[in-house]
Automatic annotation (TrEMBL):
Gene Ontology MF: a single term: kinase activity
Catalytic activity: 7-phospho-2-dehydro-3-deoxy-D-arabino-heptonate = 3-dehydroquinate + phosphate; shikimate + ATP = 3-phosphoshikimate + ADP + H(+)
Boundaries of every 3-dehydroquinate synthase N-terminal domain copy: 80-192
Function: Catalyzes the conversion of 3-deoxy-D-arabino-heptulosonate 7-phosphate (DAHP) to dehydroquinate (DHQ). Catalyzes the specific phosphorylation of the 3-hydroxyl group of shikimic acid using ATP as a cosubstrate.
Pathway: Metabolic intermediate biosynthesis; chorismate biosynthesis; chorismate from D-erythrose 4-phosphate and phosphoenolpyruvate: step 2/7; Metabolic intermediate biosynthesis; chorismate biosynthesis; chorismate from D-erythrose 4-phosphate and phosphoenolpyruvate: step 5/7
Source lineage: Bacteria, Pseudomonadati, Pseudomonadota, Betaproteobacteria, Burkholderiales
Subcellular location: Cytoplasm
Sequence similarity: Belongs to the sugar phosphate cyclases superfamily. Dehydroquinate synthase family. Belongs to the shikimate kinase family.
Main location: cytoplasm
The protein's name: Multifunctional fusion protein
Subunit structure: Monomer.
The entry's keywords: Amino-acid biosynthesis, Aromatic amino acid biosynthesis, ATP-binding, Cobalt, Cytoplasm, Kinase, Lyase, Magnesium, Metal-binding, Multifunctional enzyme, NAD, Nucleotide-binding, Transferase, Zinc
Length: 372
């Protein structure tokens, strides 16, 4: 990872990162107003054609602007607008994308552009990985979650009725363009959900970054552009470094699931969509911190700091009472459960991850202490 920062005439600084993955390396550009820059996007569209995939919520806000940039540069643009929602991240939507690409005779040199949150990014990335065995792909993430998390790391895919993200591919984009201006139309609840993953990156990897988030949480919640840009930069750097070391999740990449074992149990226990993923992860991190503290890995003051920060980010800190038996069942089906024992990602100390199984009686204490 290498970073460089340049000031633009408009006093907003632009941050450029490079994700180092050998021949699959690519740049991430972060800043305010990047979708008004006529050169930045078109630089990454090598051929004459581009296909933009978006949804009916983001399209009305940003599609015309992005389409014009490309058309002004002489590109032929196909726009595909899908219905909004996680429930649309399906085989059916993927086929709709292929239907349009084929009907419009998009060739192998067509660059696919994902304009939207993680749902659009994951689906478009998978479409790009498989259309004509792979076409170039650019990500324009428009939610905080997609800017700090899903647009980095190359996981693409769709849901199956029997499981989330069960069909997919690893496929890296040519570039990621994260315009913080787009976050100003994002609902507060969605912004908070993205902050959960930002806090996670500090908690597991970088204690000074955790301190910085703590000092700047009010600015982040108020959508201060400079604070948002730095939180995105540092998150992308941390995630990209983990991915560089373990691109296909052989081991280390699992640490990015801090808070997720509890979080997934909340999401599926309540029924998907009841809590946002980031909300469940936020609460899940409080539970993982509680467990870390009970095992003597962090002190009570540290657990309280994490809880206060998650609360200040607008996220829930008390888990729903699903019943102990149901909690255990739900955590046992989690992907990270191998060889019969639930593996938890804990912190020891704040800023460093530890993957371990835990004694059942301590786990039960955490469940009792953290649920309503
Ligand atoms: P999302 O894509 O559903 O976006 C959330 C909501 O915000 C949607 O209604 C969307 O239309 C709307 N929206 C997007 N940008 C907006 C804007 N600028 N202004 C106003 N509204 C806007 O959800 P998400 O949280 O971005 O992403 C969640 C998805 O990402 C899940 O499907 C998850 O599986 C996936 N994900 C993937 C990875 C990965 O590594 N590939 C990592 C984390 C999450
Ligand atoms: Mg997550």
């Amino acid at each position: 990872i290498s970073a460089e920062s340049t000031m633009t005439a408009s006093t907003h600084s632009t941050i450029a990162l490079q994700v180092d993955l050998g021949e699959r390396s690519y740049p991430i550009t972060i800043g305010y107003g990047l979708l008004s820059n006529p050169e930045l996007l078109t630089r990454h569209v090598a051929g004459k054609r581009a296909a933009i995939v978006t949804n009916d919520k983001v399209g009305p806000l940003y599609l015309a602007q992005v389409q014009k940039l490309l058309e002004d540069a002489g590109k032929q643009v196909t726009a595909i607008v899908l219905p909004d929602g996680e429930e649309e991240k399906t085989w059916n939507s993927l086929m709709k994308v292929f239907d349009v690409l084929l009907a419009e005779k998009c060739d192998r040199k067509t660059t696919m552009i994902a304009l939207g949150g993680g749902v659009i990014g994951d689906l478009t990335g998978f479409a790009a990985a498989s259309y004509m065995r792979g076409v170039p792909f650019v990500q324009i993430p428009t939610t905080l979650l997609s800017q700090v998390d899903s647009s980095v790391g190359g996981k693409t895919g769709i849901n199956h009725p029997l499981g989330k993200n069960m069909i997919g591919a690893f496929y890296q984009p040519q570039a990621v363009i994260a315009d913080t201006a787009t976050l100003h139309t994002l609902p507060a609840r969605e912004l908070s959900a993205g902050l959960a993953e930002v806090i996670k990156h500090g908690a597991i990897i970088d204690a000074p970054f955790f301190d910085w988030i703590e000092a700047n949480i009010d600015k982040l919640v108020a959508k201060d552009n400079a604070a948002l840009a730095y939180s995105i930069q540092r998150s992308c750097e941390i995630k990209a470094e983990v991915v560089r070391q373990d691109e296909r999740e052989g081991g280390l990449r699992a640490i990015l699931n801090f808070g997720h074992t509890f979080g997934h149990a909340i999401e599926s226990g309540l029924g998907y969509g009841e809590w946002l993923h980031g909300e469940a992860v936020g609460c899940g991190m409080v539970m993982a911190a509680d467990l870390s503290q009970r095992l003597g890995f962090i002190d009570i003051a540290t657990k309280d700091r994490l809880t206060a920060l998650i609360n200040a980010a607008g996220l829930p800190v008390v888990a729903p009472n699903l019943g102990t038996q149901r909690w255990l069942e739900l955590m046992e089906v989690d992907k990270k459960n191998e060889g019969g024992q639930i593996k938890f990602i804990l912190i020891k100390p704040l800023g460093q991850p530890l993957i371990t199984s835990v004694p059942q009686d301590i786990l039960l204490q955490t469940l009792a202490a953290c649920t309503e």
